[in-house]
Design brief:
L-histidine binds at residues 81-83, 112, 126, 130, 257, 261-262. With 424 residues, the chain is an alpha+beta fold. Helices cover 38% and strands 20% of the residues. It has 2 domains: 17-171 and 227-316, 2-Layer Sandwich (BirA Bifunctional Protein, domain 2); 329-421, Rossmann fold (3-Layer(aba) Sandwich).
């Protein structure tokens, strides 16, 4: 029987994993500089958390969640996104009793049952940030600037920031009522999916990519023209702080995002090199989420970035973020006695942080040298009976071909010199 990875999942193999590690290392460094601390939440949660947090009439909850019953009959769901879990943790662990705001970041796998396509998988990976317990518009600008800074650090510059406000529980219902009336008037020109959305979740119609729906949406009332004074002021302040940071943005009144918990600021970073599915990351405010899942009126804002889609952007631009690293030294051995001495030297070198390898397949000298070449070894050394007896061996620079006779007892000191000057 042959086993394959489930559809919509994939193995991340060397050397590709180097790119992932580079992005993760950069994330840890950059986000820490902004005073965000890492949080790790469970891979699965009780299903109701996502039903209440994300919204029961969203595509994620209705169609895309991996939900099952555990052995006690409880409904469990693999997390489809990170924010609801972070807020659950914040409330459960009473972090609101500590100094605020709380700033978290996370990196990890998420799960959605959707049609696999370029950059979109059923198990995918996100890195994200959440800033909790402050409604300051400057924090909105900080969150956006942090995401942009990450893109820039990776060498990505040709992208667009789309910005909107989706209002609050005071002004948004009034807007939704007007939008709903407009959509009913134009119902015949909408796709079947959007006709269903009119009653259940009319804001989602604004996000439809169907060409016929797009034509209708162009004439729809704009949410930015129906904000309450408080939301309008907040949105203006967010823009003013982005202006301070010299961050360019496009006001996009049709931007609503795919989750029900968003309020006020909503944003997306788009990379046109990716085609139709061009959103690299997005986020916004969710001032009602903590109240929805924990009965506490605590504001928050964050974003999530898909690592697979980020890698697509890097590939589309021809940006290499991490070169395949080779090893420092490959020790070629001849005979059992030499193997034992090489194994001892291997341990000494590794304890001094040298990437070192030997043969474990009892291959010929020629095959061992080919293996060293495949591993992109910078240096090789051959140890046999004669080398042991004379306490000497020849170390070779695999790039230049230069060789040098050394004392085996001085191998560690020689390697310390060679990796510094990188040539013989």
């Amino acid at each position: 029987m042959k086993f394959n990875a489930p559809r919509g999942t994939n193995d991340i193999l060397p050397p590709e994993i180097k790119k992932w590690q580079y992005i993760e290392d950069l994330t840890h460094k950059l986000f820490t500089n902004y005073n965000y601390q890492e949080i790790r939440t469970p891979i699965f949660e009780y299903t109701e958390l996502f039903q209440r947090g994300i919204g029961e009439v969203t595509d994620i909850v209705e169609k895309e969640m991996y939900t099952f019953e555990d052995k006690s009959g409880r409904s469990i769901t693999l997390r489809p996104e990170g924010t609801a879990s972070v807020i659950r943790s914040f409330l459960e662990n009473k972090i609101y009793g500590q100094a605020q705001p709380t700033k978290y970041y996370y990196i990890g796998p998420m799960f959605r049952y959707e049609r696999p396509q370029s950059g979109r998988f059923r198990q995918f990976h996100q890195l994200g940030v959440e800033a909790i317990a402050s409604d300051d518009p400057a924090l909105d600008a900080e969150i956006i600037s942090l995401g942009i800074r990450l893109m820039e650090e990776l060498g990505l510059e040709d992208f667009e920031l789309h910005l909107n406000s989706v209002g609050c529980k005071s002004c948004r219902p009034k807007y939704v009522k007007k939008l709903k009336s407009f959509l009913i008037e134009n119902k015949e020109d909408l796709c079947d999916k959007c006709r269903e959305r009119i009653e259940r979740n009319p804001l989602r119609v604004l996000d439809c990519k169907n060409q016929s729906c797009q034509s209708v949406i162009k004439g729809a009332p704009k949410i930015t023209e129906h904000l309450c004074p408080e939301c309008d002021e907040h949105f203006s302040e967010v823009q003013s702080f982005l202006d301070i940071l010299n961050i360019e943005y496009n006001i996009n009144p049709l931007l609503v995002r795919g989750l029900d918990y968003y309020t006020n600021t909503a944003f997306e970073i788009k990379d046109n090199a990716l085609g139709a599915q061009n959103t690299v990351f997005g986020g916004g405010r969710y001032n009602g989420l903590a109240e929805e899942i924990g009965n506490r009126d605590i504001p928050g804002i964050g974003f999530a970035l898909g690592i697979e889609r980020l890698l697509l952007s890097l590939d589309a631009k021809g940006i290499e973020v991490a070169e395949e690293a080779g090893i420092d030294l490959y020790i070629t051995v001849i005979g059992k006695k030499a193997k034992r001495e090489a194994f001892r030297l291997l341990d000494i070198l590794r304890n001094e942080d040298f990437k070192t390898e030997i043969d474990y397949l009892d291959r010929s000298v020629g095959s061992q040298m080919k293996s060293a070449d495949r591993m992109n070894a910078e240096y090789t050394i051959i140890i046999g009976e004669d080398e042991l007896e004379n306490n000497s061996a020849t170390i070779r620079n695999m790039k230049s071909g230069n060789e040098e006779e050394i004392k085996l007892s001085n191998l560690l000191e020689v390697m310390k010199q060679l990796v510094d000057k990188e040539e013989i």
